[in-house]
Amino acid sequence: MKHIIKILSLLVAISAFWIGLLQAAIVPRSHTWLLPIYFVVSLGCYGLLMVGLGLMQFPTCPQEAALLQQDIAEAKDFFKHKGVDVGSD
């Protein structure tokens, strides 16, 4: 619930800032109407950046990788005994 309140308060603050720019005519109207588009594009870029950083910092688990390789070897042996071609080693 707290996260929703943060998002809504941020949305209200951005809307108030945008309406303030429209009323004060500090920025030309042609540029002010593009601010929501800039905001959406910036939000998309931020999301892609966070996904990219998350992928770069993805933790590796060498113990789990070794266990997975062991499971794969056991499965290959099991299927070889059943007569199934599992490919080359």
UniProtKB/TrEMBL annotation:
Keywords of the record: Endoplasmic reticulum, Membrane, Transmembrane, Transmembrane helix
Annotated Pfam families: DPM3
The keyword Secreted appears for this protein: no
Major location category of this protein: endoplasmic reticulum
Any one GO CC term of the record: dolichol-phosphate-mannose synthase complex
Biological processes annotated in GO: GPI anchor biosynthetic process
Keyword flag Glycoprotein: no
Cellular compartments annotated: Endoplasmic reticulum membrane
Pathway: Protein modification; protein glycosylation
Membrane topology of the entry: Multi-pass membrane protein
Listed InterPro entries: DPM3 (IPR013174)
Positions of transmembrane segments: 34-55
Self-association and partners: Component of the dolichol-phosphate mannose (DPM) synthase complex.
Function of the molecule: Stabilizer subunit of the dolichol-phosphate mannose (DPM) synthase complex; tethers catalytic subunit to the ER.
Annotated family: Belongs to the DPM3 family.
PANTHER family: DOLICHOL-PHOSPHATE MANNOSYLTRANSFERASE SUBUNIT 3
Name of the protein in its database record: Dolichol-phosphate mannosyltransferase subunit 3
Originating species: Thlaspi arvense (Field penny-cress)
